[in-house]
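User: Round two. Same drill as before: sequence, then structure, for each protein.

Assistant: Same drill it is. First protein:
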Amino acid sequence: MKSQRIGAVVLSEQQIQDGVEIVAEKLSNKFVDAVLITVVPGGILFTADLVRKLKFDIKMDYISCPHTPGDSNNQSPIVFHENISLLGKDVILIDDAIESGGTMNRLVAHIQEHYEVKSLSIATLFVKPSRVDIPVPQYYAYEMANDDLLVGYGLPWQDKLRNVPYLAKLVK
């Protein structure tokens, strides 16, 4: 894909697949079954790759909380229909990344306040260094060295570039 907004590659397609394997192994060593809740739309690609590598029983659902990447003060409405009961279940929220962590922190609080789950965890491909503290276990493959804005593999720029198959720095 060609775009003047795509800069230096941060994670290649192979590094992404290696990261998926790392997260899948961590989760498979921890869980026997779980409800996976994908944060849409960003978490769709990571979820699709991840679930095919998991070695435990899963049920899947989705949640939405539109936001601008890096916005730690996201106040948009959370949309979750609970298509699958969470009562007494191990629940894993899945997203492509935790950037500032503001939105994920809101999603965690929403699940904890409204549902009686057995446990709540997060699975992402990577996290950024300045993320806020999120009070649940986090399973990820990579911790980025800086807070560069990134695009690709689910991460957008102006609602575009999610389908870039690797992760790259955004050129403004």
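Second protein:
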Amino acid sequence: MIVSIAGLVALSGLATAHGDHGQSQLAGPHQGLWYNTLPGDGGTQADSVFSGISTFGRLPYYPCLASDAEKYDIAFLGAPFDTGTSYRPGARFGPSGIRQGSRRLNLYGGYNVPLQANPFTSDMRILDCGDVPVTSYDNAWAIRQIEEGHNSILMRKPYLDANKPGLSRAGKTLPRIITLGGDHTITLPLLRSINKAYGPVTVIHFDSHLDSWKPKVFGGSPSEVAAINHGTYFYHAAMEGLLRNDTNIHAGIRTTLSGPSDYDNDGYCGFEIVEAREIDVIGTDGIIKKIRDRVGTDNPVYLSIDIDTLDPAFAPATGTPETGGWSTRELRTIIRGLDGLNFIGADIVEVAPAYDTNAELSTMAAADVLYEVLTIMVKKGPLSVGEESHEL
């Protein structure tokens, strides 16, 4: 007891001695201790990578689905759905995984050297709107949730050029939505939402699979609900008139088929095909030329990217992996080659983090691919048209 009292007296003396130094107690959070800005053209210090909530590229978060008070030009939206997959489930965790993989995107400032632009420092307002609430018990209802959630944040006035004519069917300027999947089934409700705003659109589809199979060929004969899955959604999109039938293209295809008739059906759905193996002959420049020649430079274009476009060596965490794919460098180069096109929206799908390596290869690759897409959209500026459009 005597020792304890002596210890307390000693501690009290130490505290008194420190008090004599004139130090004031720090009230947290103490901003003076945080040095988050870098000299030069901007950026953030590494200590900020792990601060705040997890958003894409650490963008500001706003609950867009709950409120329309905030305006934006580009919004990220998660669609955690994976009950339309045929092989590996797990893409419902894709949105959170991609956000985790994006933590370093603007660590050193975010400047995209090949595209000569910084998507994080433009006049455009870019937000992460979180995820659509998606049920895992009813595919039909989940698809409706995704369509309505996407459309609710698409059909709003953007931050820039809100009152100027735009590419939409109503002649108005709309924001862009980049959706984080989710298995590839989500592209059907997204195209239904896009159709309300733009009518039939041109689609560039990066994938190892066609995804235009007739339901009776790809697991959909038991029921109407089963007919819509991650291998048939483009067939339904074509039948519903959501696509411009003379301008759509697949890139990266290397799947096995039920037979040559699958290609005939795909052409009926309005697609041209670029096989993955063509890169060995024509290179990335040849792939880019084929895509640009097919879609044109004036059409509104929707971009859908399946992470399985990449070889499993570069992105193992996906629902239906196919060997013989492109490298991450090759895919990023090809996407950069689409700079200047009228991208009205995009998605990246089939990222299933449970199958990734500890090094987060797939989620980083997905985030980096979207970084290229985001940069192209920012360089293009708002989706307004005419001489009055905003120049960035």
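Strands lie at 74-79, 126-131, 176-181, 202-206, 248-253, 271-275, 300-306, 342-349.

User: Perfect.
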